[in-house]
Amino acid sequence: MAYQVTARKWRPMVFEDVVGQSHVTETLKNAIATNRVAHAFIFSGSRGCGKTTTARILAKAVNCLSPKHANPDNACEICEDITGGRSLDVIEIDGASNRGIEEIRNLRDAVRFAPTRGKYKVYIIDEVHMLTAPAFNALLKTLEEPPPHVIFIFATTEVHKVPATILSRCQRFDFRRIPIEEIAERLRFIAKEENITVDEESLLILARKGEGSMRDAQSFFDQVRSFCGNTIVAKDVLKTLNVVDQEVYFRITDLIRAKDRKNGIGFVNELFQGGVDLREFVIGLTEHFRHLLVVRTTGSTELVEASDHYRKRYQENAKQFSEGDLLRLLKMTYELETAMKYSPQPRFRLEVGLLQMIAMESSVEVEQVLRDLELLKKKVIGVEPAAGGGAALWKGPAESPNIAVTRTPPADVKLVGTVSAGRLRQQGPVAQRPLIIDRPTRAPLGSLAAPVTQERAVPRPVEQPTMKTISADEAYARWQEWVGEVSRDRISVGTILGDSRLEDVRDGSVTIACPDDYHLAALKRNREFLVASFRSMTGCDIRIDPVLRPANGGRGPSSNAPEKASLGQSDASPTASPKAIENHPVIRALCREFGAERIE
Q1: DSSP 3-state assignment of 150?
Q2: Closest Cα partner for 61 from 49, 41, 140, 47?
Q3: Are 406 and 393 contacting, i.e. CB atoms less than 8 angstroms apart?
Q4: What's the CA gap between 397 and 383, in Å, rounded?
């Protein structure tokens, strides 16, 4: 007999042999037993989880001549023909190769013919999501109301690509990722039947390498068996599959804990020289930190997919890291994996990432920082919180346990009192300077009242010198200069200021008359900028008070100001002199920035 790979030789023949999908197999068995089999099914799930295998078992079960407990007997002629792929009543179609509307039309014509030997004609379409939209539409009517002797079974790894109109006409079963323990158990059973000696560590490595796919794990099993023969050990499995040993990841945690940068660089070089897939190594490192985080968080190793030996290692190593540190390490490995994917030099990127992990400082919880600050405050002040005294009461040093003072006395109250019943009582305000209790004095033994006299004055804060105010004459004299300064920074604001008029200056308040609402709103909007500009030019602090004064409708400048100081009219008005026009800030800006010239 020709050689068959393990995945084909040990393909499940009954529902109980399907690993990790009991929620699907039990439902199908009950449907067969009660004669409630639907006319269309859709099996979705990742690769190698048993979709097509379950579809074949279902096809045999509904056509078997002598079923046993809703399972096919695999001995009758129909079961043997289906198993051998010779049955005319079970048609398997590759959806990727037969995805057009013409193939679906042929299928629609063929379903009208009755089965040749069995009870049902079963169509199994694998990778059904590859069908085109017109093909799906052509299938709708037949799928909704097929002949009573037809059953459709669709298998797909990307169920989200199947139209909702198809899904609504089928019973949907989602196949789960097979757990590592169940894959390892199945491989252990196969190895026993094949008379192969394999250790537990090798089984776990093979199961983990399969990543939830039984077919992938069995393919790796065949590969390792070809290398090792009938005796398989973990060392040979790691060498054959080029898998990073679990001990390597524990070396990483040792380097991080020891802050050993030098050996960190040498470690990456060792991986590179050994031909290890660096990106695969980072994926394994992420899983390693995940195991540490799970053990640290839950205190248990039940969720760790590893052998008992390594579970004990994880239990010990998890105590050496905080949850915050492990979360940061996980985040760094996620970012490192993404960066290496697009990096032209993944080795250098791995070296940088590993050095960042080694140099990472341990995280500290906020609660611990607050506790340390509170302890430091106690040492500086020299007192400790009074038990049961509330937030405002503090007890004295160890030699005076019965004396309490207020923690933060009012600014203008002198806390002077007598020791009576273990408390100070407040007496009278002090008019000038605030005082606080520096350190309580121990009361003499047997004394009922002892004055507390040790006090220290808290100096008043030094007042900042106030800005000088500008006189009206100086303001009128420097108005034009101010307009020029504003125009140099913001030409639009300077133009609006030049079109306005200085009306009054009194007690540091400058009243500016605006000809219309637009100018008024603009000056109010730029009030802070104008104040800052005036302060930088004159060193005087002013308040800007824009008011609405239409043309010829308001009063002029103060009578004590020179007549020429009234700048209500723009220097660039038609009556202004040519020299005044040339000195206008807007004209100067145009000449300076754009090279404008006067045209006679």
Answers
A1: strand
A2: 41
A3: yes
A4: 6
Q: Are 306 and 291 in contact (CB under 8 A)?
A: yes
What fold characterizes domain 180-241?
Helicase, Ruva Protein; domain 3 (1.10.8)
Q: What pLDDT, on the 0 to 100 scale, is given for residue 508? A: 80
| Average pLDDT value for the chain | 80
Distance separating alpha carbons of residues 523 and 56, to the nearest angstrom: 84
Please give the helix or strand (H or E) that residue 600 lies within, else none: none
How far apart CA 515 and CA 549 sit, in angstroms, is 5
Distance CA 411, CA 395 (A): 21
CATH architecture of 472-594: 2-Layer Sandwich (3.30)
Q: Do 543 and 528 form a contact (C-beta atoms < 8 A)? A: no
What does the alpha-carbon distance between residue 67 and residue 118 come to, in Å, rounded to a whole number?
13
For the chain, domain boundaries: 6-174, 180-241, 246-359, 402-458, 472-594
The residue written with tokens 């200021």 in the block is 497
31-40 average pLDDT score = 94
pLDDT value, residue 333? 92
Q: How far apart, in whole angstroms, are the C-alpha atoms of residue 365 and residue 530?
A: 48
Amino acid 192: pLDDT: 93
Q: Terminus-to-terminus CA distance in the chain, angstroms?
A: 112
Residues contacting 490, CB < 8 A, separation 6+ = 526, 529
Could you write out the DSSP letters of every residue in 87-143? -SSEEEEETTTS-SHHHHHHHHHHTTSPPSSSS-EEEEEETGGGS-HHHHHHHHHHH
pTM: predicted TM-score of the whole model, two decimal places: 0.59
Residue 211 contacts by C-beta under 8 Å, 6 or more apart in sequence? Answer: 177
The answer to whether 154 and 94 have CB atoms below 8 angstroms apart is no
Could you tell me which CATH class the domain 246-359 is placed in?
A: mainly alpha
Mean pLDDT value of segment 40-60 = 94
Beta strand 90-94 with 404-406 is unpaired
What pairs with residue 509 in β-bridges? 506, 543
The class of domain 6-174 in CATH terms is alpha beta
Per-residue pLDDT at 365: 64
SS3 string, 309-352, reads HHHHHHHHHHHHCCHHHHHHHHHHHHHHHHHHHHCCCHHHHHHH
The CA-based angle 437-442-444, given to 5 degrees, is 140
Which residues does residue 540 pair with via DSSP β-bridges, in sequence order?
A: 468
Q: What distance in Å separates the CA atoms of residue 365 and residue 30, rounded to the nearest whole number? A: 55
Cα–Cα separations (whole angstroms), residue 61 to 24, 453, 519, 521: 14, 100, 90, 86
Q: Would you place residue 275 in the very low, low, confident or very high pLDDT band (cuts 50, 70, 90)? A: confident
